[in-house]
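Q: Predict the bound structure with nicotinamide-adenine-dinucleotide.
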Amino acid sequence: MTVVQTVGVVGAGTMGVGIAYVFAAAGSEVAIVEPNLERARAARTVLADQAAGARARGKLDPAMHEALEGRLRFVAAISDLPDSLDLAIEAVPERAGLKRVVLAEVEHRRPALLATNTSGIAIGELAGALCHPEVFLGLHFFNPVWSMPLVEIVRGRHTNDATLAAAQEVVTQIGKSRIVVDDAPGFATSRLGVVIALEAMRMLQAGIASAEDIDRAMELGYRHPMGPLKLTDLVGLDVRLDIATNLARAYGPRFDPPQILLEKVAAGELGRKTGRGFYTW
Ligand code: NAD
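A: Predicted complex:
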């Protein structure tokens, strides 16, 4: 069996671009929905740079490079997605209300599999907007998608066995490893990753140590490849704030966003994407 032939990705931000790339690299025809023209332009550049870099490193031969670029196309609206896609993945900002609206609209295109890349909103909460929650589940990719090996598959209460089996197959076919978790806010990865990051921010806020030393503590003391503050800069402080806010609603004050995070987001210091977060990039 070949990899899913047709894929739709909704939202061409940090994650949507990476997800589109890995499917195109695996041979799928990918349509990317991005209504923001500036974002779409930036996404095209990121995709072109990533493909050129892979070619320069000998990971893509010239024919594959050309084929990959031909498999990616942008559309401005969900209604422009092809009908009956093999797989549609939502990667819009981490807001339950927005995701519910987007998913309901994508469902009208009748994809065989419908997935969300949410970092932590319960699948059950998002499935409420759908007529066919049995084909819906979480496919949680990691940043940067082209190099991170994991996809966390989240099975909702209504997700059926065929959908879960197909999703497992898809993850294998794009060359990723998977874990399967039952539906709970934050799943396994965000729940653990975000709690460490929030504690690191509270330590920084209290002046316990510098950002560099807090990160080094986890990198050298616990063998994390990247410290929690640097990782937050990479993920986006706004993205982490949204996740923490959702998790605080589900699990209480241990996920309350620290003041330093609220202040940095309000000041537009969102991490690497804006040139400044806990570090200057
Ligand atoms: P982002 O802000 O970089 O990108 C979101 C994109 O969605 C933007 O380009 C925006 O223009 C677009 N968008 C907004 N509304 C839309 C709509 N109605 N239709 C189509 N596109 C729309 O966000 P991101 O970091 O890529 O995160 C996307 C999702 O992935 C979130 O749920 C986030 O929690 C999750 N996630 C993020 C990371 C990370 O490291 N950033 C990792 C794993 C999962």
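A: The chain has a mean pLDDT of 96.
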